[in-house]
Amino acid sequence: MSIDAQTIVHTILAEDLEVDPGEIADDVSLRTLELDSLAVAELIVRIKEETGIDLEGEETRMADLTVGDIVALAGSGREAA
Fold first, then answer.
1. Who has the most CB within 10 Å: 3, 8, 22, 36?
2. In this structure, is residue 79 part of a structural domain?
3. How far apart are CA 74 and CA 52, in angstroms?
């Protein structure tokens, strides 16, 4: 059973990082969601655990990425899996 990247990212944000699900939208940046650097690091680790995609190289710009950008990055290797 395969879960899509959007569901994975939204679930991590809502359940693990306690972001209000009503605030999670594709055009909202992590900065707008007020995630600190520890939360961003946790998001990167959880995405890697769930998808196998390593976003560590994106860590410095993660706060400026939108949820949609992160979903696209998280899903970038899942189609081949």
1. 8
2. no
3. 8
